[in-house]
């Protein structure tokens, strides 16, 4: 089902993930966040941007365990823990943050 | 005649069979995993080299690039793109695909 | 299976993934990688081995734009973060192809076919791709 933004139509799959990664921009991220009932703050953007960089580097959306560890390494232990990440993305940091970041659903995420 | 080979010589004997059946002046184009047959310093390099005087051997450049082996292609092998593939098919009569 | 360990109530088994195909021409390499990443969640003792044309999966500088398929080779560099650290490459397979570990994009342990056969015999589960 396509989402409409600024007169542009963007394709998503049946779960709301972007079909084409290249379609992503910050406006679309905002729209995807709205569909997840997530109010984007700087902390949210930090995780979303981290995920985009991670994907760019490894061509994979990380599993939540790996995301937590990698964030801890880059942004410090106060952010690299599941409590912090679940507060930002209550329905699963990997799942929700990946969707907002325009990435595919993480491999192994049911 | 144009022969295409799309399997690695380590995996199947298609390249060997193809080279044995290629006549002087024929063209052999290596594509997909077949480009492994175009590489230098492998167990199959000598077999390919032995045919290079009488048969023109080409490889599809995008398939070499995809596998990270462009720099290892045997000297004397002609690299072609998809347009070149079409030209070879058009210029060399029947196409035999060795699968 | 005398060397089984108990880990948080679960049994840790030795899993080996045997990779024998060149990437991109067939789906085996990508399928194997996806299974490895999914199974990583189960905290098992995982070894990845690369033999025959499977060694080509680890080649540096793969660029797939020209054939319009996904370049999944950077994902091998993420395996470490999934706690998959046992990557083995067979010496005979490298030699037959004129390759060395300098051609590969991740650090690996090189072993002979005989050593690999021994390692294979120690596994609980061997999955072949």
What is the 3D form of chain B?
globular
Name the helix and strand elements of chain C from N-terminus to C-terminus, one letter apiece.
Answer: EEEHEEHEHE
Order of helices and strands of chain B: EHEHEHEHE
CATH superfamily of chain C: DsrEFH-like
Q: Helical stretch count of chain C?
A: 3
Helix/strand class of chain C: alpha/beta
Q: For the residues shown, what is the average pLDDT of chain C?
A: 93
Number of helices of chain B: 4
- Total beta strands of chain B: 5
Describe the structure.
- The complex is a heterotrimer of chains A (110), B (99) and C (129).
- Chain A has 110 residues and is mostly helical.
- In chain A, 49% of the residues lie in helices and 5% in strands.
- In chain A, strand 1 and strand 2 (8-10) form a beta hairpin.
- Chain B has helices at residues 14-21, 45-51, 61-66, 82-91, and strands at 2-5, 27-30, 56-60, 78-80, 95-98.
- In chain B, strands 4-3-2-1-5 form a five-stranded parallel β-sheet.
- The two termini of chain B are 16 Å apart.
- The longest helix of chain C has 12 residues, at 28-39.
- With 129 residues, chain C is α/β, with parallel strands linked by helices.
- Chain C contains three helices and seven strands, in the order E-E-E-H-E-E-H-E-H-E.
- The chains are: A mainly alpha (110), B alpha/beta (99), C alpha/beta (129).
- Chains in contact: A-C, B-C.
- At the B-C interface, helix 3 of B face loops of C.
Task: Please supply descriptive tags for the structure shown above.
heterotrimer; A: 110 residues; mainly alpha; Arc Repressor Mutant, subunit A; two-stranded antiparallel ribbon; 2 strands; B: 99 residues; alpha/beta; Hypothetical Protein Ychn, Chain: A; 5 strands; globular
Helices and strands, with pairings:
The complex is a heterotrimer of chains A (110), B (99) and C (129).
Chain A: E1 3-5, E2 8-10, H1 26-35, H2 42-58, H3 64-75, H4 82-88, H5 93-100
Antiparallel strand pairs in A: 1-2
Chain B: E1 2-5, H1 14-21, E2 27-30, H2 45-51, E3 56-60, H3 61-66, E4 78-80, H4 82-91, E5 95-98
Chain C: E1 5-7, E2 10-12, E3 14-19, H1 28-39, E4 45-50, E5 86-90, H2 91-96, E6 109-111, H3 113-121, E7 125-128
Parallel strand pairs in C: 3-4, 3-7, 4-5, 5-6
Antiparallel strand pairs in C: 1-2
A few lines on this structure:
Chain A has 110 residues and is mainly alpha-helical. Chain A has five helices and two strands, in the order ββααααα.
């Amino acid at each position: 089902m396509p989402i409409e933004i600024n007169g542009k139509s963007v394709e998503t799959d049946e779960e709301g993930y972007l079909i084409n990664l290249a379609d992503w921009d910050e406006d679309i991220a905002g729209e995807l966040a709205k569909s997840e009932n997530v109010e984007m703050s700087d902390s949210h953007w930090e995780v979303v941007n981290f995920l985009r960089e991670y994907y760019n580097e490894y061509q994979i959306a990380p599993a939540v365990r790996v995301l937590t560890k990698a964030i801890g390494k880059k942004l410090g232990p106060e952010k690299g823990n599941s409590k912090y990440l679940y507060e930002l993305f209550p329905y699963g940091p990997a799942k929700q943050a990946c969707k907002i970041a325009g990435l595919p659903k993480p491999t192994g995420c049911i | 005649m144009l022969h295409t080979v799309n399997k690695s010589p380590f995996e199947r004997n298609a390249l060997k069979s193809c080279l044995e059946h290629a006549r002087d002046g024929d063209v052999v184009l290596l594509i997909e995993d077949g480009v492994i047959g175009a590489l230098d310093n492998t167990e199959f390099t000598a077999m390919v080299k032995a045919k290079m005087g009488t048969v023109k051997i080409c490889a599809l450049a995008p398939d070499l690039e995809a596998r990270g082996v462009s720099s290892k292609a045997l000297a004397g092998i002609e690299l072609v793109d998809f347009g070149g593939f079409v030209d070879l098919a058009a210029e060399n009569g029947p196409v035999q695909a060795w699968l | 299976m005398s060397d089984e360990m108990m880990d948080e109530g679960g049994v840790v088994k030795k899993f080996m993934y045997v990779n024998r195909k060149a990437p991109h021409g067939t789906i085996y390499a990508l399928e194997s990688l996806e299974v490895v990443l999914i199974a990583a969640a189960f905290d098992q003792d995982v070894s990845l081995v690369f033999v025959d044309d499977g060694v080509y999966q680890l080649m540096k500088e793969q660029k797939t734009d020209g054939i319009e398929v996904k370049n999944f080779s950077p994902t091998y560099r993420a395996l470490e973060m999934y706690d998959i650290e046992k990557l083995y490459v067979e010496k005979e397979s490298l030699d037959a192809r004129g390759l060395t570990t300098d051609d590969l994009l991740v650090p690996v342990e090189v072993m002979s076919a005989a050593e690999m056969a021994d390692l294979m015999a120690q596994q609980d589960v061997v999955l072949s791709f």
